[in-house]
Structures are given as structure tokens and as C-alpha cells.
Write a sequence for this structure.
């Protein structure tokens, strides 16, 4: 069975990619950050599929605000309970970042700090010498195209993406996807370095 090493951050279609490629006989490895390259299959292609930092943060927020329900239930931690008491929506989080209210601004900044420490950031992706030349297959925004590029890299059949809600774990349609201009501004200010990293990595996607 061929191997594929995917350097994927949380909320970047990891389960969908693993499930899809397993269906065509590919073993996908998802190394943890800091794991040495010597622990991975020798000679296996290394790749990544990206997601815009604000979209990824929004997906994570919507997952945790519903405590992972219905597919991955996990109770709030103490800090999440405190955070969601102050910040009720994703827009409220972005707007709080640039709020004149010191309490809300502090809650927003702490949320970002803890999210970064738990979910990692794009600034840490491909930071090991063995991973710096990883193949950038594309973005979650066009996952089918990214899957086709990965299949060509591994030299396997192009797999079909799962439609199983438990695998996709998509944000429920009842939660808003659009962001207010003020929230967008707040997140773009705080995530400027990560957004720049995302845009730079996207330039490596084959055309």
C-alpha cells in the first residue's frame, strides 16, 4: 500500500482526506507537530492542504460553541465556558478584538491565545527542514482539485470524497457563515502574519 504524509492543521478536512484515500488503498499519516521526520515512512510523499486562517478559526469556533455535537461531543473546558459566556458568536469575537471595552478585548485576545496553543497555526506548518519542500496541494475551498493533485502525487486513483456527515463534520446550516465587516477587520488585524503565510504557501500550488 502506498503511503502519504499529510501535514494538516485541525479543521482542514483531515478526516475527509484520510477516509477518501483509504478507499483507494493509500495509508495516510498525520504527524503531530514536533514529530521527527525519521518517525515517518521513508520516501513517502509529504503534502498539505491549506485553509484560510479566518475560515479555519470560524469552523473551530462553531465546533466548540456546540461542544462538538452531534458527531464529536466533548464538554467545554473551564476556559471555554468562561469564553463563551462573554463571546456568544463568531462576529462578536472578531468585533471584540478591536472593541474599546477592555473586558471584551481581553476575552477575545485570550481566546485567540488559547486557540493558537491548542490548535496550532500556519506559522508552524512546514517548519522542519524535512517538511519545507512539502507539496502544497491546494485549499479546502476547492477540495476536489486538491484531492486530484494529491492522487497524481501518490500515483493512485482519484478517490471520492465522503458525504457522511460524521466524516465531514460540517458547520450546521443554522450557524452563520457570513462575517460582519467589523469582525473581518478584527481577525485580519490579529491574524495578519498567518494570513500572509497562507497566501505565500498558496503560491506553491501547481497551476
Amino acid at each position: 500500500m502506498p503511503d502519504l504524509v499529510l501535514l494538516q492543521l485541525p479543521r482542514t478536512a483531515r478526516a475527509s482526506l484520510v477516509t477518501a484515500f483509504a478507499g483507494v488503498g493509500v495509508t495516510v499519516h498525520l504527524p503531530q507537530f514536533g514529530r521527527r521526520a525519521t518517525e515517518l515512512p521513508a520516501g513517502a510523499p509529504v503534502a498539505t492542504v491549506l485553509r484560510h486562517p479566518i475560515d479555519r478559526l470560524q469552523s473551530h469556533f462553531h465546533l466548540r460553541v456546540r461542544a462538538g455535537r452531534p458527531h464529536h461531543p466533548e464538554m467545554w473546558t473551564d476556559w471555554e465556558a468562561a469564553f463563551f459566556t462573554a463571546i456568544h458568536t463568531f462576529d462578536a469575537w472578531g468585533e471584540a478584538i478591536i472593541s474599546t471595552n477592555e473586558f471584551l478585548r481581553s476575552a477575545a485576545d485570550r481566546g485567540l491565545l488559547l486557540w493558537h496553543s491548542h490548535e496550532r497555526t500556519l506559522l508552524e506548518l512546514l517548519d522542519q527542514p524535512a517538511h519545507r519542500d512539502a507539496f502544497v496541494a491546494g485549499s479546502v475551498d476547492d477540495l476536489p482539485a486538491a484531492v486530484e493533485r494529491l492522487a497524481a502525487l501518490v500515483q493512485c486513483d482519484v478517490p471520492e470524497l465522503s458525504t457522511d456527515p460524521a466524516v465531514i463534520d460540517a458547520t450546521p446550516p443554522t450557524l452563520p457563515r457570513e462575517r460582519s465587516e467589523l469582525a473581518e477587520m478584527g481577525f485580519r488585524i490579529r491574524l495578519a502574519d498567518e494570513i500572509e503565510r497562507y497566501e505565500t504557501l498558496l503560491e506553491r500550488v501547481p497551476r
Q: What stands out?
A: The longest helix spans residues 102-119.
